[in-house]
Design brief:
single chain, alpha+beta, seven-stranded mixed β-sheet
Length: 139
């Protein structure tokens, strides 16, 4: 059974197993701002979803990562739907995500969930990103 909750400091070790690029000070800030979720499958840490706000008004996913063994079984889809629903309950009807241009799996996943490509950009270290956007009317 899939569950999702806000992350706690004691989750940091599990987060590091999912994505070792996340550093503790950043993680702690996300916890304080309630901007990071832990995703569990049968009580086992399966992934994370971290977001902030694009232009201060559009929830934007920064990290959405599942361990390999939890991919393709609906965990990611359900996690994304829960997050979108929670954002809609807070009266947000638009969502964004920036993906690595080479991450074909993530691009396909978000396109299948209704996200539309609206642009591309390059970040430091010549990392190319594509920006995806979705609008779900509240009413």
């Amino acid at each position: 059974m899939m569950k999702m909750r806000f992350a706690k400091e004691e989750d940091f070790e599990s987060v590091q197993m999912i994505d070792d690029s996340i550093i503790f000070p950043e993680f702690k800030k996300w916890i304080e701002n309630k901007q990071i979720y832990m995703i569990f499958e049968n009580e086992e840490a399966a992934g994370i979803l971290q977001y902030n706000f694009f232009l201060e008004k559009i929830p934007m996913i920064n990290y959405f990562s599942l361990l390999e063994k939890f991919r393709g079984i609906g965990t990611g889809t359900l996690s994304l739907l829960i997050w979108e629903r929670q954002m809609m309950e807070r009266m947000f009807d638009k969502f964004a995500v920036a993906l690595d241009v080479s991450d074909e799996g993530a691009i396909k996943f978000f396109e299948e969930k209704g996200y539309k490509k609206i642009g591309a950009f390059t970040v430091p270290d010549n990392e190319e990103k594509v920006l995806y956007f979705k609008h779900k009317p509240l009413f």
